[in-house]
Amino acid sequence: METLEKITIGEYVAKDFRTAAIFSKYGIDFCCKGNRTIEEACEKKGVDTDQLMNQINTVLATKNDSAIDFKTWPLDLLADYIEKTHHRYVEEKTQILLPFLDKLCKVHGANHPELFEINELFIGCAGELAQHMKKEELMLFPFIKKMAKAALAEEQIAKPQFGTVKNPIAMMMQEHETEGDRFVKIAALTNNYTPPADGCSTFRVTYAMLADFEQDLHKHIHLENNILFPSAMLLEKKFSEQE
């Protein structure tokens, strides 16, 4: 039986995504830093481990018929899902959020100078994520899909130009952490997406969209860091063992 010390936060969330809400409540990063154990994370945050585990176990013991078990999905299907769901979400929402943030800076920047930093951070996020997703769509995901199809057909597969799938995965995970850190700053500057008392409807809508964007980004990164990437590395290892 796996012990508390061995199971990572990411594995808990991969088992049941409802646990993500508990980790978020305590300010524990389950996506970019999901490779830590609960004990490690609780110690760093000053959170009572037993209290957190009781809440986690309550969630896990409650039946959840509506949850999607992404861990059981074939890797090519999961890669397609991430691309068509989360990549498209980022592409669509950045095009809406960028002009909204620009407008807020022009109208409210004098009274709320933090808007300029929020805008600058999101512009950086939009640009970096666009490049990041293209690298996944053109390089990493096609190879993962190729491995999944070869495994199904019981065929061998040629090594990729990047040597091993671990190389682009390490790069993607580093970039995930960068964007996660960027949104920590955005959340702090927006007072956890709470519009100021003098905020207009554009203020409220923009902050609500930023909060939704962060939530989607967390799920997006979780699916890759905690499910797709580890499974892809395991599959590649099986191919190398057959050589």
Automatic annotation (TrEMBL):
UniProt domain Hemerythrin-like: residue ranges: 84-230
InterPro entries: Hemerythrin-like, RIC_family, ScdA-like_N_sf
Keywords assigned by UniProt, alphabetized: Cytoplasm, Iron, Metal-binding
Coiled coil location: none
Molecular-function GO terms, alphabetical: metal ion binding
Subcellular location: Cytoplasm
Organism the protein comes from: Flavobacterium urumqiense
GO cellular component, one term: cytoplasm
Protein name in the entry: Regulator of cell morphogenesis and NO signaling
UniProt-listed Gene3D superfamilies: nmb1532 protein domain like (1.20.120.520), SP0561-like (1.10.3910.10)
Main location group: cytoplasm
Superkingdom, taxonomy of origin: Bacteria
Pfam families the record matches: Hemerythrin, ScdA_N
